[in-house]
Each structure stands twice: as C-alpha cells, then as structure tokens.
Amino acid sequence: MPAWVMQFGMPIIVLVFGLIVLCIVIKGKTAGWGTQSIRMAGLVLVVTVILFLVAVSISLPSMPQESITAAFGILGTVAGYLFGKTAKED
After folding, report:
1. Which residues contact 50 (CB under 8 A, 6 or more apart)?
2. pTM as predicted
3. Which end of the chain is more exposed for a tag (fewer CB within 10 A), N or C?
4. pLDDT digit string (tens) for 25-58?
C-alpha cells in the first residue's frame, strides 16, 4: 500500500463519515430550519472538524502543535457561540 494512502486515509475517512452524518441530519429535517436544527448541524460539523484535525496531526507528525492548538481554540469559540446562545424568553 502506498505511503500516501496510509498517511491521508484516516483524515479522508473522517471527513466522509462526517459528511454522511451531516446528510442524514439534513435529510431528517422535515419541519424546517430552526435554532435546534442549526445547533445539530453545527455540532456535527464541529465534531467532524475536530476529529479531522486529530487524524491529520496523527498522520503528519511534522505538523507543528501550535497550529493545531490554535485551530482547536477557534473551534471552541465557534462551538461556544453555537451552543451557548439561548433564545430570549419573554
């Protein structure tokens, strides 16, 4: 098996799996896109990107850890915005 398949196989598998799950979430929506739907799609995307970054960092040991740490920080900010924002009740 070529080295590039071993190196990039897991990140590609993670991305394909995340896209399949996202398609299932989108197909399962029958009532339209509300706040909860956006949160569910956001959760799938954030988890997929985090798993992708972990898979890439494992397959590319030469990648600097600072860049992965910065990406996790940005993803944490996006996740905090998506899931921390609540609707205002009157």
Report:
1. 72, 75
2. 0.73
3. C
4. 888 877 777 778 888 888 888 888 888 888 888 7
